[in-house]
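INFO batch 0412 | record 1 of 1 | parsing
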Amino acid sequence: MEKLKVVALLVVMVCGLVGCKEDVEVHTEYVKAQPLQLYTEEVVQETMEQAKVSAEIAIEEAEKEFSPYYVAVSSLNIRQAPDINSSLVGSLIFGDYVNAYVDGEWAELDNGTYVSAEYLTSELLYTAYAAPYTSGMKSYMPYSVGDKSIFTQSSNQYKLQELCNTGNYGIRQYKGRYCVAIGSYFGTAIGQYFDLILENGVSIPCIMADQKADCHTDDSNIITVANGCMTEFVVDFVNLNSDAKRMGDISYCSEDWKSRVVEVRVYDMNALSE
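INFO prediction complete | emitting tokens
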């Protein structure tokens, strides 16, 4: 009986060992070796040339010196590439400030687009006139009554308004410049560009839309005697800013304009001779 027990125990142990052997498996994975990629001398040479070109372009870009310029023409096209047939992506107007790298006939702007270098200048030339002290009031006049212009059709004033549109605050504008009448003291012609420089540093780009009559201005032909102002904006009265209309003063179109004129800068640029 004892022998049977021993034999049975051995059988159980052997089965257990066999079972353990079956539970423990060794997994072997074979990875297929990739063949080495061999490059020909031509491929190596081409790669080196490409790297050289890339390095030269990077050095050229790093050496570009962008400088400040002003637009010296009434309107300047911005192109995608330095080519007259390249796609238009925008435009600039007289007096706009840009950073550009000039290379021959083209100038690259700091955003990667291009303009003709011929129409950029490092300094805008103007004649500066100091303005006498005033209250800062800026009056206005309508450019039309109903559908009829206040200017005769043969006049330069009328011709200019044909080129203008009703712009910001209901003021008549030409390419971003506000239509304004000033006195004969400044020697400006109808259509001529000028800027009003305010005491707070704000610059208002303007265009001569009419001239104040000498009989209505002071001895210097600057200030209107009746209301003490030196500027008269030409407006579309129906669309005029409500605050300016209520106060009778264009200064109320913007908080930035509530400052007196201290200087008038006149440019040698005229919309009627472009």
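INFO post-check: DSSP finds four helices and 18 strands in the chain.
INFO record closed
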